[in-house]
Each structure stands twice: as C-alpha cells, then as structure tokens.
Amino acid sequence: MKKITGAKVVIETLIQENVEVIFGYPGGAVLPIYDEIFKQKKIRHILVRHEQAAVHAAEGYARSTGKVGVVLVTSGPGATNTVTGLTDAMMDSIPIVCISGQVPTHMIGNDAFQEADIVGITRPCTKHNYLVKDVTKLAGVIHSAFNICINGRPGPVLVDIPKDIQTFKTVYKGKKAYKDNRYYKPKVKPDDEKINEIVKLMTESSKPIFYVGGGVINSGTKASKELFRLIKKTSFPCTQTLMGLGAFPTSDNQFIGMLGMHGTYEANHSMHKSDLLLCVGARFDDRITGKVSGFSPESKKVHMDIDPSSFNKSVNVDLTVQGDLYRILSAINKRIEEKKIIFSKNKIKQWWIQINKWRSRNCLRYKNSKEIIKPQFALERLNKLTEKLNPFITTEVGQHQMWAAQFLSFNKPKHWMTSGGLGTMGYGLPAAMGVQIAHPKELVIDVAGEASILMNIQEMSTIKQYKLPVKIFILNNHYMGMVKQWQELLHGNRLSESYMESLPDFVKLAESFGARGIQVLKPNDLDEAINEMISIKGPVICDVVVDPNENCFPMIPSGSTHDQMLLGPNDKVEGEISEEGMVLV
Amino acid sequence: MVDNEPGVLARVVGLFSGRGYNIESLSVSEVDSDRFLSRVTIVTSGTKIIVDQIKAQLKKLIPVHDLLDITELDSFIGKELILIKLNVKSITRKSFEDVIHKTKTNILFDKGNEVIIQFSGSPSEIRSLLKKLKPFKIIEQTRSGLVSMALGTKYIKK
C-alpha cells in the first residue's frame, strides 16, 4: 500500500468520517495539514478570526445538524484559545473534534516557540484527548476521536499532532481497519423491567410532569418524535430546560414554559407540587433546582439519561434508567401500546386546573411603553414576524438570552443554540456562523446583548468573507444587564463596572464589514426594522435600543425554592437573601 | 484497571482534585505487559452519594476498563509496604530485636547503628508497628499506598 504523510492521513480520515466543513485558523505547527487542505476539494475550510470562535462555530454547526463539528488550530496560542469553546462544548455535551498542531516530538517539553501542553490543559475540559507520538497510530486515534465524541453523552475530543508526525509517512488502511474502541461502548439499551416501572408510576400519578432537557435533542429528531407521542398520549404537562427548548414544541398547550431560575411561574410551581417527576435527559442543574433541599419535595423522581454520572449527583431520585433516550422513550411508548394502557384525563384533571390557575398569573407579562422599546416587546415582535420562517436562533449570554428563551417559540429541535452550562458571552455570533454554514438558505438570528456581541465581534470579518447572511439582533440596554440585575438585587444597586461605556456605532460597524446596519429607537419603528432585516439577503446588525431599566422576571432568587419566585420589580425578596444564597452564582 | 498510557494517572488524579475529592492513598503499577494495563488502587472517603459520584466519574474516563469498589464486598485483603530507617543504639538493641522478631519484620540493612527494616501489612498493623517502634529513633520512613484484592469470585475485569 502507498505510504502517505501524517497530514494527508488527517484529511483522509476526516473524509472517511464524512466531514464536509472544518473551522480553523492556520499557524506554524499545522502548516503541513493546511497544505493538504489546499490540495483537495472535498472538505471546505472556514477561516475564523479567533480560535475560540472556531469552536463555537463548530458547536453551532453540530447542534443544528447533529453531526460532529470539526476544528483545526495551531499549537500554543491557537490551541489555548480553544479552551473556552471546548469547555462550553463539554458542559453542553456537543460533539466536537478539535485537531491542534504541536511542536515536533523531540522539542516537546523544551518550552519551544508556540508550545503549550494543550493535552494537559484540556484534560478536564474534554471528554477525552490525545497526543499522537507515532504516525502509525494517527488514523486510529482520529477515528476513535469521532467515535468517542458522538457516542454516549457527546462532548469534545482534542487530538494534538506534533509537526513531525504530520510529515512522517505511513499507510492508511481505511476506517474499518481501525476499530480499536473495544471498551468505549456506552450502554444505550434500557433495562426492560425499568420501563415497566416507569409505565406503572405514570399510571398511578395524579400530578405528573415531564422535565425535559437537552439530552433529547442530542438523541436526535427521532427521540423528539417519541417524546411528542408519549406526552400527547398521556396528556401530562411538560416543562423544558434552557437546553431542552424545542425537544417538545413550545407552542403546544401541554408545554407550560421553561423551568428554573427564570422559568415560568406555572412550570416551577408544577415542579414543586408534582407527585411524579419524569426527567428526560436533563441533569438537575443548579439553575433548575434552586435550593436543592427544597426541590420538588413531594414527587417520586425518575431520571432517564445516557450518562450514569448524572444520576443522584445533586438530587436523589427514586428510579434511574440508563440508555439512549430514543430507545427509552420508544420502549415506553411500545409498552403502553402493548398493554393497551389508556391514560385517563380525569385522573389529572385537578392537576391541570391547578396548573392553569398558576398559568393565569401570566408571569411573563410586562408593562409596555409607547416611548421606549421594552426588550420583551422586541422579542415578541421578532417572534411574530419570523415564526413562520422557522428560524435558527443563537444567543449570547445574559438577560437577552433569558428573554429569548421566554418569548421566542421553539417548535422544532436543533433550532435553538445557546450556551447553557458554561454561560459563554460571545458564543452567539460564531455559533450563528456555524449554523448558517450548515443551513445556507435558512434564516439564522443571533439574539445578542451589546456587551456579549463585542466579545467575538471580530467574526464580522468571517461573515463578510463567506457572505453569511446572519442577522444580529442586539437588545442594546447599555449595561451588562444580568450583572446589573444582580447588583440591584444583591449589592445595594451599586453598579460596579457593569455600564457599557464607549460602545461602537453598530450601524457604522456593520457597514465597515460590508453588512447592513439598522438602528431602532422607537417601538413604532420596530416591525419595519425587523421586516427589513429579514428581507435583506446579506448580514445585518439590527441595533435595538431598549429600556435599560427592564429586568428579567420571573426569577427565583439564589438560595430559594421553586415556590418562592419574584414575579416582577415590585416583588421583594422576603427578608434578607441568606448568606448561603449570596455566595451562589 | 486502566490503559497504561501517558497521562492516564493525571486523568485520574485530576478528576479527584478538580472535583474536590480527597485521595488518601494511591498505588499504581502495570499488571499486564502484553495488553498495557495498569491497576490503580485509590483510598478515598466520603458519603455514599459522593463515593457513587466518584465511581461514576471514574468509569466515564475513556482509559478506565473496570472499577471495583472493594469496600462493597464482604471481604478483601488490603496491604501496604513500609520501609523504616532507624538509629538503634546498642543499649536498646535487645528490645528492638524483640519488636522485630514478634512483628515478623524483615531487616534489609544493618550496619553500625543504622538499620533499615521492611514490613508489610494492613494499615492498622503498620500503625501498631510504628507505635511499638516509638522508643527507637526513626530517621525516615516511606510507605506505599494500599494494594488490595477481593476474596472469593469477585475480581476486576481487564
């Protein structure tokens, strides 16, 4: 067999893994791989302007397609710049393969130019990582990386390849020859008797609730379909986490809103009073539970997940079911059909009456204004005017992110990309690029804040280069809104460093990158601006100047439980926030 | 049971430090040179929830083949090895040799007043030996981590 260089092996393995796009930035230690990229036509390379953005773009690509996102960066700073992105992908369980160049093997450990121990640095923020020191092992490692990153609970895998390994020659035998993942076989098939137990609990419950997380989305569109069937069949209410939005259509009447810190009154109260909590691919995160000791005190808890380390991590549950969610949900549906179980609406009638009472509090209401644009109103209008186009939405992190989660509709999975676990400001713009690359004809909107957008604003240049028609919808309140909100609530309104001074003129900024800039100041001009934004074929920055005094409600203050929500600015925390609550993030 | 590859110990140790768990003792060595497998024995402590979480996290590490919580079994053997260097004056020689004899401790080196002894046993046996040696001048000591093995049919899988 013909011998090829390590660099060529990289390209061949990527082609075998059906990679169509890689996001990257060249540098000294990956030049041989970039040379191979130059010589081929099967894989498209997207040149980002910062390596962090390469990972976020790959995340957007992966989340909107279900495929693996691939990143290519050089050694040293190129690799260290990916750390935030990799951590983000780790926290949100996104399948990423990140290939980094490294100084030649004989120089490793010598503090060589652009050397960083990236395998050491990324050990805790990747699902797995490799340093390849033998060119004959390179192909096997890359194929393993793809296998590991997408099977089980997905996550990022980094492959560090020294420059000499890229130039050494070896034989590439094709993907099948490298099946050496003998022990990476996560359990995907749920235990039969556990399915029976779930079905039994479901038939017995009079106050059930589905608590759905991003795991359903990771399990694929098939899992969402099974979930939909199950929820429809049972008439149970369903709440979703920030990561889960879209797994079940949010316009459906059985959806009672997102839960957690900025979740709806009805979702949180239902969690609190439920007698059967069916957790499907969520992980009882602190944003969800509030004070753990007071979390859903009366419920039996069932946890379905592919990752057993999520079981009993923060909340003790009564029944754990390990497996792929599609398999679990379809097994439940099948069992219900086999046993010809009919869920009586009567049994949960009182429950729905109670939920609808909570719902009637209309917790997302806000006082609109004719003078100044309320951020909630801006998102309501954005939703109304774009809903039919079924847009892909990405966000940055902060108030705008929570409002987007509350006010936009998500009726299909894989259309909502937000940094949930890590809370990475600067995520939305590069993620939107990745989504747009995967779906060139679709409407992709980055709902942003004026602070977050500046964290990866250099990507406007990438957007220009590839003519990506990304729409950036900035809710500009001149503050790091969520920081300000917490300072108001917890730190005596001392707004330490949270005012965004010296903001750019976003219209001119857009124009300087060949994009269109629109600024909106008055509520009456909003619809026109949004319609214009959608109608423009290229990229747009829509700078919506909103009320700086608006805060994100409802809210569970730190250290409180689901039934202790603040519904609006006039709601005060009862007594002082506990010391325990003050130290929480 | 882990793959004996570079960085595997860092993964295990980093998991403990990164998540705030405590390692009380650690012992690692290759046990299968054909398949490049090492066996790691870690002594840690915590509530059941914490220990279950540690186990679940360790099992998630790719190079970890199998994990056995030996304290969950009915019976197991746990041994440590200790080397002790002492300065034994001739006046105390007799009583020192008495201790050595009764505890079945090996003398590895004995020249002038300097003696190096080796003992292996359970942590409590080692504590008891050290107590008996208190009257003598211990210059230095070094101890391995615990190594352990289950009794009966349970064993760790490769």
Radius of gyration of chain A: 24 Å
Secondary structure tally: strands of chain A = 20
| Cα-to-Cα separation, first versus last residue of chain B | 6 Å
What share of residues are in beta strands of chain B?
25-35%
Bin the helical content of chain B: 25-40%
User: Portion of residues in helices of chain A?
Assistant: 25-40%
Low-confidence runs of chain B (pLDDT<50, min 5 residues)?
none
Assembly category: heterodimer
Short description:
The complex is a heterodimer of chains A (585) and B (158). With 585 residues, chain A is an alpha/beta fold. Chain A folds into 3 domains: 3-178, Thiamin diphosphate (ThDP)-binding fold, Pyr/PP domains (Rossmann fold); 192-359, TPP-binding domain (Rossmann fold, 3-Layer(aba) Sandwich), CATH 3.40.50; 375-545, Thiamin diphosphate (ThDP)-binding fold, Pyr/PP domains (Rossmann fold, 3-Layer(aba) Sandwich), CATH 3.40.50.
Question: How would you portray this structure in words?
Answer:
The complex is a heterodimer of chains A (585) and B (158). Chain A has three domains: 3-178, 3-Layer(aba) Sandwich (Rossmann fold), CATH 3.40.50; 192-359, 3-Layer(aba) Sandwich (Rossmann fold), CATH 3.40.50; 375-545, Rossmann fold. Helix content of chain A is 37%, strand content 16%. Chain A has 24 helices and 20 strands. In chain A, the strands form four sheets. A six-stranded parallel sheet of chain A has the order 3-2-4-5-7-6, sandwiched between helices. A six-stranded parallel sheet of chain A has the order 11-10-9-12-13-14, sandwiched between helices. Chain A has a six-stranded parallel sheet with strand order 16-15-17-18-20-19, sandwiched between helices. In chain A, helix 1 (6-16) packs across helix 2 and helix 3 (51-65) packs parallel to helix 5. The longest helix of chain A is centred in the first third of the chain and has 16 residues, at 135-150. Chain A is globular, with a radius of gyration of 24 Å. Chain B is α+β, with helices and mostly antiparallel strands and 158 residues long. The radius of gyration of chain B is 19 Å and the shape is elongated. In chain B, 28% of the residues lie in helices and 34% in strands. Chain B folds into two domains: 2-67, ACT domain (Alpha-Beta Plaits); 76-147, ACT-like. Chain A, domain 2 (Alpha-Beta Plaits, 2-Layer Sandwich). In chain B, the strands form two sheets. In chain B, strands 4, 5, 6, 7 and 8 form a five-stranded antiparallel sheet that branches. The A-B interface holds A 119-120, 123-124, 127-128, 131, 148, 183-184, 307-309, 311-313, 316 and B 6-7, 10-11, 14-15, 18, 49, 52-53, 56-57, 59-62, 65.
